[in-house]
Specification:
By secondary structure, this protein is an alpha/beta fold. Helix content is 42%, strand content 15%. The strands form two sheets. A seven-stranded parallel β-sheet has the order 3-2-1-4-5-6-8, sandwiched between helices. A two-stranded parallel sheet has the order 7-9. The relative contact order is 0.14.
């Protein structure tokens, strides 16, 4: 049974492939990527969401497809529709899709395109599983070095609890589902075991560095302006700030522990990712 992985050379996709190799024959894995020459160790096929006429051919012989959501915000619903249509034409038997936590109720701006994709899947007639991934802890710990240098960790999440997990946790869950049984038709809300506020994240940074790194909560517009001042593109900076505001409303909190149940181990603690960020 061939398993296709879209975006297999990306940050999440690379980890998914590593996890799949532990559970399946590498000969049955197919990386579906824009640049096949960048992939080593498994079969790679050219796959571009923006070239719908080429997609059915690339999916030939693939029974299970992991559709990792595209990274071009605003284009993703259309791109995902291209893949789903191609999968139907190529007779793919099962699609596993990486969505977002609480896609049907979240105020996070990203949720809209994910929900559209979920509905396209449900209407496609192809058996599906939806992995509603929560926030990656790395989304926040990527700012650790800058926070230490600046002397404060800034954001707009207030006292909102964030049930994040590491990319490796979500990658392992995808691999477990793709190589397991009983998952078709399921929608999994996936999040970390440990919820924390950004104040608690700043306290952990302070603890590990021996420096006082407080959390400074900013109004959305001020946070967006600060991010733009760091060289982050305007639209992305505005997005990050708005996502933090959604976090303040509880949109990144989930205490179901579905993720740790799926992978059979606790999710990676936030403190471990802070340590990784400080050591890299």
């Amino acid at each position: 049974m061939k398993i296709g992985i879209t975006g297999a050379s990306g940050q999440l996709g690379t980890l998914v492939v590593e996890q799949l190799k532990k559970r399946a024959d590498a000969a049955n894995l197919v990386a579906l990527v824009r640049s096949p020459e960048k992939v080593e160790g498994i079969e790679a096929r050219a796959f571009d969401y923006e070239k719908p006429d080429k997609l059915p051919g690339a999916l030939q012989g693939i029974e299970s497809l992991l559709l990792i959501s595209g990274n071009e915000i605003g284009k993703r619903a259309r791109q995902h529709e291209n893949v789903i249509k191609a999968a139907k034409e190529a007779d793919v038997k099962w699609i596993v899709y990486t969505s977002i936590l609480k896609a049907d109720t979240s105020t996070i701006s990203l949720a809209k395109e994910h929900l559209i994709t979920e509905n396209l899947l449900k209407d496609s007639g192809i058996p599906f599983t939806i992995l509603r991934n929560g926030w990656y802890t790395e989304n926040y710990t990527g700012s650790v070095a800058g926070a230490v240098e600046a002397g404060a960790f800034i954001g707009s999440a207030g006292d909102g609890k964030i049930s994040s997990a590491s990319r490796i946790d979500f990658a392992e869950a995808a691999a477990v589902v793709l190589t397991g049984t009983g998952h078709q038709g399921k929608v999994y809300e996936l999040a970390g075991d440990q919820a924390y506020t950004l104040t608690e994240l700043a306290e952990e940074i302070s603890k590990q560095t021996g420096k006082n790194i407080p959390y400074q909560n900013l109004p959305e517009q001020e946070y967006s302006k600060a991010l733009k001042g760091m060289g982050i593109p305007d639209a992305f900076a505005e997005g990050i700030a708005s996502w933090d505001v959604s976090a303040s409303k509880g949109d990144l909190y989930d205490n179901s522990k579905t993720l740790s149940t799926l992978i059979g181990r606790p999710t990676t603690p936030m403190a471990a990712e802070v340590k990784n960020a400080l050591n890299n």
